[in-house]
Amino acid sequence: MTANRQDAWTPDDDLALAEVVLRHIREGSTQLAAFEEVAKKLSRTAAACGFRWNSAIRKKYDTAIAIAKAQRQQMKEQKRWNSREFSGEMEEETRGLPVMEVNEKEHESLTYSTIIQFLRSEKGRVEEQERRLKNLERKLEELQYENERLLQENQEIMNSFHHVEKDYRIVNDDYRTLLEIMDRARKMAIFGESSHPKSVFRMDGNGNLERVEK
Predict the structure, then answer these.
(1) How many angstroms separate the CA atoms of 211 and 189, rounded?
(2) pTM of the predicted model as reported, rounded to 2 decimal places
(3) Which has more pLDDT, 182 or 93?
(4) Average pLDDT over residues 9-26
(5) What region, left, alpha or beta, does residue 208 occupy, with left being phi > 0 and alpha being psi -120 to 50 degrees?
(6) What are phi and psi of 210, to 5 degrees?
(7) 3-state helix/strand/coil string of 130-192
(8) Taking a C-beta distance cutoff of 8 angstroms, is the pair 37, 58 a contact?
C-alpha cells in the first residue's frame, strides 16, 4: 500500500515525476498510470502526484510535453507504416516492385511534417493564450481604474453630506431660537407681558415713595 507522505517535494522528486509522465505521454499511456507509477516510487499517493504535476510542474515542461506528444504520434505512424511496409514487401515478392525505398522516404517526410505541424499548432495555441492574458490584464486595469474613481466619488459625496448635515444643525438651532422668540412675543401680545420687570415702590421715612429695583 502506498504511504501518504506529508513532507515537501524535492527537485529530484519533481524531476522523477516529470520523466515518468513524459515517458507515458510518449508511449501513449495515461497520466493517471504515470501518477500511480511515481506514487509507488516516491511513497506518495497518486492524487498527490497528480496535484503536484498540475499545480507546479506541467507549466515548466510545455515544450517537452509538445515534443512527447509529437513522438507519440510518430510512433503511431511508425506502426502504421511498418504494417504498410510489410504489405509492400509481400507485394514486392509477388510483383518484383521496389516499394520499400519509396515507403521509407514517404515515412520520413511524413514524420517530420507531422512534428513541425504539431509544434506550430502548439505555438499558435500558446500565442492565443498570451493574447487572452493581455486582454484580461487590460480589463483588470480598467476595472481597477473604475474602482478608484468610484471610491473617490464616494468620498466626495460623504464630504458633501457632512457639510449638509452641519448646515442642517445650524439652521435647526436658529429655527428653534426663532420659535422661542415668536412664542414670547405671542404671550406678550395676549397677556400684556412685558420684557421689562415691573417697578416696585416703597415709602421712606419722610413719607415719600421711592422705586425699588428688582
Answers:
(1) 26
(2) 0.41
(3) 182
(4) 92
(5) beta
(6) -135, 145
(7) HHHHHHHHHHHHHHHHHHHHHHHHHHHHHHHHHHHHHHHHHHHHHHHHHHHHHHHHHHHHHHC
(8) no
